[in-house]
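Lab notebook, bench 4. Continuing the backlog of folding jobs that were queued last week. Each job is logged with the same field layout so the records can be merged later without manual cleanup. Today's entry covers TauD/TfdA family dioxygenase, a 325-residue chain. Filled in by technician R.K.

JOB TYPE: sequence-to-structure
TARGET: TauD/TfdA family dioxygenase
LENGTH: 325
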Amino acid sequence: MEPTSASLLDLDLRPGRPPVLRATGDPPGWAAEHRDALRAAVTEHGSVLVRGLGIADRDQAIEVFRRMGSTLMTEREAFAPRQTYAEGVYSSSKWPQNQPMCMHHELSYLLEFPGMMMFSCLTAPVEGGATAVADAPTVLGELPPDLVERFEREGWMLVRNYNEEIGASIEDAFGTADRSAVENYCRANEIEFEWQPDGGLRTWQRRHAVVRHPVSGKRCWFNQIAFLSEWTMAPEVHEYLVDVFGAEGLPFNTRFGNGDPVGEDVVATLNEIYDTNTAREPWQDGDLLLVDNVRTAHSREPFGGEREVLVAMTDPVRLADCTTG
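JOB STATUS: finished
OUTPUT FIELD FOLLOWS
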């Protein structure tokens, strides 16, 4: 057996939490030495939490990401602002602490998205705040067959409204505020767009809801239909945004691929099945979490106190290479 085999890692496998690997040593050196074995374990299990390395600061986290990943990806079409610490290394998305970031696959509305997510916890919250995970093939298998069939047939649509008042700005999302550059990006990435009289931008993009894993070939529920839906917002937040921006002016919303609304009942069903299949482990200072972004959805639970988690995305995957056909 090859020395980099995932089976050589002594993983703690328990129901209801991601696989945990205890590790000690210099974080960047350990990451370089165990890179192949750890990545193989992520492919096998969908995620691995490395505990005990004691990643102490941003510089160490950045170096671990660089040694563990392949090409670190520059985020495009962000749904919330982030702080950039180094090329391809970011803060967690700025999102209210008391509101959950429901299960989703990162950037699953792009034509090229990360195959692996890397998270480094420098400061664990005093309560809550776990980055929980859920197995996408399992979730797919538990969804109502007629709902899956419709989403497979039609895909899903993401509708976004960019303005200067809420959510990610045009420059946050596209890396530029130049209209011509934004329009060229949209055309190149199969995004319909319309400039608004106030200078804002509305976009529509249709994507696959189910894909095949690029390595295993397993069918995966892969999207952000529930997370970026109006019905996942807290009721008081939803009411306020509709009152201020109108039902069609929400910062984001999801639809069936033909443009029909996705009902509150559908989103509730999706989130219930995610909840049933959620695995979580509270963060500890110095933890490293690797997540197969196609095989495994992730979330961020509400939290109290300070929380600092750095994020990097790697192993770019083209949607065209994993569609179910």
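OBSERVATION: The two ends are 35 Å apart (CA to CA).
SIGNED: R.K.
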